[in-house]
Write a sequence for this structure.
């Protein structure tokens, strides 16, 4: 499955699906892939996104206004898969839309759509028994979050339950861009390395090429979410081109390690 | 029908080897001890309901809170201090008043009112706030956040923070701030910062979202003083335990007054904290009917009410698995109630279990019925109930006339109506 990271750091791009509409999301995703994104996280909009900051909250509201659903996101995934064979595809969702569809059906449809893995924001490992079984049956990778507040014992359990990669949260807080990377981030990645050989993607708050390059020194992959969603928000009518350009900027610095602007 | 997530909880730290498959197998092997076989046999689960569905960042804090609460429960000094505050600060025990004129007027069952409205700050909410505040002290945290709908929980939180010297931030939907202006001022007077929440329907659910975002950001220094039997474990259990005192008192009081147990106990249910408090010690008394009253609002369509058991289905919202008002794609529905304390789209998980087990029944009362009951109680008993509690009164108005004179009913008056005077003025035409 295309969830191994060949180049380091790999770029994971998050989009809220259906913002402003599904056709645009599709174009944005393909543009991001074309520009060099390695993994795409297809965000399922939810009415009560407790883990998200204002940017993704607004995007979710826009997407829900015209009824974007989990079923539609899975259809979109299948379309993207047809155009991009080697890109990793992750569905990023809150639990309730998945429960409503039923765990079994969700995993089955996701597999047929060509999805590689799933991250459920509000599903910690303790509650994941049924989920892990359904994911395993459908050969999908369960990706779990690891937080700076997770004690080592929890990191072990997270590592044991995860496949594909582990999503390390750079700091306590909701999603959204930050000026500075927290010290927490590097410490967490170090602690995770002691309990896993899986690749580690770091996310939350990474919004520019400098931060991308900095994180790339200690993590295997970097997740950029709110900054992508904000680019979409600010470039009405030319979203795909703007995101493609932004992704190229992100990757430009890290591909020239000698010319880093740190 | 949504798939019910199995009540799997692995207690011991997991071995570091293995994969998702290993975790799955381990839980399956542990079926006998780790899986739910009977309601509430596992901490945090009520039948299939409850659990802990939060972002990973909050898990350590929930585990810490659970440990601290378990320790405090066994610590006689903690209990002594809490009892002292409940008695000498909050005003417990509250009376169980015989409602003579209401009983006469309805012409059936004998009606008693459990007077939580007489507590300091004007509602049952202070029971839980005092308990959690003492835990905050034990955990060495100095900052407390809370959500509030009607403002009663916010006022009670601001009160205990003033009492114990904590910094206090209360999140409140701007629609609720408008409806409950007086309580906003009270919180500010008590030194709390009230932060208006503009998202969603700008009511309780949205305030909880924002409080959770604050908590996920400041979790190391901050305690989230959740105000109902909602959210992730240990909140539903812990908040229930802090309110059990209501039924402990009521059971002894009714036995003393009537020499027998009541036929029925009636309470309104938003998240369900006052209801679980007044039900709990009667659960084992199988003949006592437990009746929860949900907000029937102004109609039966989704968005017009908050009757989770009439229009909802099992799902996960804000940390717990319970009945949720939602659409076919799993998006949470908007709600309506004249009462800001009842318009939550989900319900405490223990209520879901009591309902599924047939131990408690849940019925709606409409906005109009609640307003009418308010006037009736005011004029027969000289008690102006909170609009939330008025929903429970509305149910006794329907039910008592059909009951025998030898039947006894307890209605929980969870709060007083002062905070609702503005809404009552808008909605009641008095001549």
């Amino acid at each position: 499955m295309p969830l191994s990271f060949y180049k380091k750091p790999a770029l994971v791009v998050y989009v809220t699906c259906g913002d402003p509409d599904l056709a645009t999301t599709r174009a944005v995703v393909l543009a991001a892939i074309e520009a060099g994104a390695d993994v795409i996280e297809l965000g399922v909009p939810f009415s009560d996104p407790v883990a998200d900051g204002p940017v993704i909250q607004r995007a979710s509201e826009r997407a829900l206004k015209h009824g974007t659903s989990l079923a539609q996101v899975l259809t979109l995934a299948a379309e993207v898969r047809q155009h991009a064979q080697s890109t990793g595809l992750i569905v990023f969702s809150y639990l309730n839309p998945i429960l409503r569809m039923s765990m079994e059906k969700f995993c089955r449809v996701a597999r047929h759509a060509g999805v590689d893995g799933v991250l459920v924001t509000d599903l910690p490992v303790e509650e994941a028994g049924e989920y892990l079984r359904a994911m395993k049956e459908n050969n999908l990778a369960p990706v779990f979050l690891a937080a700076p507040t997770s004690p080592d014992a929890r990191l072990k359990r997270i590592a044991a339950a995860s496949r594909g990669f582990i999503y390390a949260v750079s700091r306590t807080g909701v999603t959204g861009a930050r000026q500075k990377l927290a010290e927490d981030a590097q410490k967490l990645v170090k602690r995770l390395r002691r309990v896993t050989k899986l690749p580690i993607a770091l996310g939350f708050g990474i919004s520019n090429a400098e931060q991308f390059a900095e994180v790339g020194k200690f993590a295997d992959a970097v997740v950029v979410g709110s900054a992508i969603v904000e680019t979409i928000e600010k470039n009405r009518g030319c979203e795909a081109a703007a995101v493609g350009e932004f992704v190229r900027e992100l990757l430009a610095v890290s591909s020239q390690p000698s010319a880093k602007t740190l | 029908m949504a798939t019910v997530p199995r009540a799997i909880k692995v207690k011991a730290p997991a071995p570091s080897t293995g994969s998702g498959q290993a975790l799955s197998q381990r839980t399956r092997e542990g079926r006998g001890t780790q899986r739910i076989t009977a309601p509430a046999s596992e901490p945090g689960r009520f039948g299939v309901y409850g659990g802990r569905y939060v972002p990973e960042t909050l898990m350590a804090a929930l585990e810490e809170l659970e440990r601290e609460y378990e320790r405090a429960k066994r610590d006689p000094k903690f209990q002594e201090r809490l009892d002292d505050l409940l008695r000498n600060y909050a005003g417990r025990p509250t009376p169980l008043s015989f409602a003579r004129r209401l009983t006469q007027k309805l012409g059936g069952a004998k009606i008693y009112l459990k007077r939580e409205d007489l507590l300091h700050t004007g509602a049952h909410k202070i029971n839980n706030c005092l308990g959690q505040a003492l835990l905050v002290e034990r955990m060495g945290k100095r900052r407390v956040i809370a959500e509030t709908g009607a403002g009663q929980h916010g006022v009670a939180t601001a009160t205990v923070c003033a009492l114990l010297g904590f910094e206090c931030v209360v999140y409140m939907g701007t629609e609720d701030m408008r409806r409950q202006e007086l309580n906003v001022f009270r919180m500010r007077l008590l030194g709390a910062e009230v932060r208006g929440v503009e998202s969603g329907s700008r009511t309780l659910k949205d305030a909880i979202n924002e409080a959770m975002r604050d908590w996920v950001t400041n979790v190391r220094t901050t305690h989230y003083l959740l105000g109902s039997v909602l959210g992730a474990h240990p909140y539903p259990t812990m908040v229930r335990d802090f309110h059990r005192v209501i039924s402990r008192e009521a059971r002894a009081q009714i036995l003393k007054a009537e020499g027998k147990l009541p036929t029925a106990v009636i309470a309104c249910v938003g998240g369900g904290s006052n209801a679980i408090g007044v039900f709990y010690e009667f659960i084992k008394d199988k003949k006592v009917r437990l009746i929860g009253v949900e907000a029937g609002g102004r109609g039966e369509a989704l968005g017009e009410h908050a009757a989770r058991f009439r229009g909802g289905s099992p799902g996960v919202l804000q940390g717990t698995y319970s009945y949720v008002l939602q659409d076919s794609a799993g998006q949470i529905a908007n709600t309506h109630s004249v009462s800001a304390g009842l318009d939550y789209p989900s319900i405490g998980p223990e209520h879901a279990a009591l309902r599924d087990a047939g131990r408690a029944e849940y019925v709606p009362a409409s906005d109009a019925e609640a307003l009418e009951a308010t006037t009736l109680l005011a004029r027969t008993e000289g008690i102006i109930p909170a609009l939330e509690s008025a929903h429970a009164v509305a149910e006794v108005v329907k039910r008592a006339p059909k009951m025998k004179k030898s039947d006894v009913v307890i209605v929980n008056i969870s709060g007083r109506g002062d905070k609702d005077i503005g809404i009552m003025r808008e909605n009641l035409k008095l001549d």
